[in-house]
Amino acid sequence: MKQPTADVRADFPQIRTALPGPEAARIIERDTAVLSPSYTRSYPLVAARGEGAIVEDVDGNRFLDLNAGIAVVATGHCHPQVVRAIQEQAARLIHMSGTDFYYENMVTLGEKLAALVPGGGPRRVYFGNSGTEAIEAAIKMARYHTGRDKFIAFLGGFHGRTLGSLSLTASRAVQRRRFGPLVPGVTHIPYAYCYRCAYGKQPESCSVECVKVIEDELVKTIVPAEELAAIVLEPVQGEGGYVVPPKKFFDELQAVARRLGVLIVADEVQSGMGRTGRMWASEHFGLEPDIVAVAKGIASGLPLSATVARADLMQWERGAHASTFGGNPVAVQAALVTIELLEKELIDNAARVGAHMLDRMRDWPRRFPVVGEVRGLGLMIGVEIVRDQARRERAPELRDRLVRMAFERGLLVLGAGTSVMRLSPPLVLTREQADFALDTLEDCLGRLVVS
Question: Is 180 helix (H, G, I), strand (E, B) or coil?
């Protein structure tokens, strides 16, 4: 939907051309000819520059970003303090490889992360480049430390696309199709997706069957406790649909893990780094994982990940696991500034603006027949789109139409799960920008008709 070209506020969208514009269309044609068709593009955005929560495309169209580069640019696009840190570090030292040599800022970041993760006691840190690498390190560490080879993961979970992490992933069939055999020894069970409870229960009266099944059935039938290394989960599911479990799910999970003597691995790749209004989503629930996987928002857009574990777990021998680029000094310096900004103001902003958005959105199921549920923590918000509220029938085609309608109005949102629209903006999002986004989405929802 082309908007008038009269100047509007620089922190609001402005659409000047048809979408895609002529230059974007040319680039998309070139992309189609040479790049992998496995990439998942929801609409024809060709980004040229970004600042804060605004992205401008190659034709001068301006968009309000509620994706944050898939929950990556926690401090917003090109935060000046992050940019300055990158420039200054790049002028001193771009690479040396922390696998084989030492440099101080990697130690400083390790100390910082070790102090930040939930739970008491000393921690150690392993650096990689992406979320899937953080999970791969967690898998190997759990096996190495326990001498056990089996894992429990959850349906709807997304943990990456390399073969080890993909074996834990269970969010979409296309992500696993034709890549087998995967790493053996992983059993998937239903997650605490209360809106679509696999056991037909209500949150206020359930007995946490989605956790009790581990002791009641799995260890008695297919996963002997003495062979179970770890339970892996996202404290708030990301790709699975921005699913927020009740606290009793985590209480029971930790109790079961203690009784069985197995580790808990928290995948905070998408939910961590302030996104939920706390540094870690685990903190909302009192979850104290043995191993935490961190990536995405850690370095405001530079590739970096960390696997943070209890020091007694991370005791593998020299050469057992390493990464040439993990802990790159430029990415590390960006991470140090990112954490400083998060702690200073942006975590609080995520909590405050996120609460404001959720307050405005809570009546959407009443106002819009296609909205089944709104849920979230901080600036990690999911909107379940349905064909019928009573039957809770999933409506992926309506969700996709909503995402496209928002794009045409200058708003960047994405899907998650089968029929969920997710909102994961940069943590610099202002209340005024949030209100503009919600006004836009409400207009789109009002026009979204079930066919």
Answer: coil
pTM of the shown model: 0.95
Q: What's the total number of domains in the chain?
A: 2
Cα gap 344→114, rounded to integer Å: 19
Per the document, the length of the chain is 451
**What confidence tens digit (pLDDT) does each residue in 281-328 have?**
999 999 999 999 999 999 999 999 999 999 999 999 999 999 999 999
Burial class (CB in 10 A: 0-12, 13-18, 19+), 172: middle
Domain holding 271, by residue range, is: 81-342
Evaluate whether 328 touches 96 at the Cβ level (below 8 Å): no
Q: Which of 313, 342, 371 is the last residue of a domain?
A: 342
CA distance 302 to 299: 5
Residue 228, SS3 per DSSP: strand
Name the token pair of 4.
């008038």
Residue 363 sits in the same domain as residue 335: no
Co-location of 413 and 381 in the same domain: yes
Contact assessment for residue 111 and residue 96, using Cβ atoms and an 8 Å cutoff: no
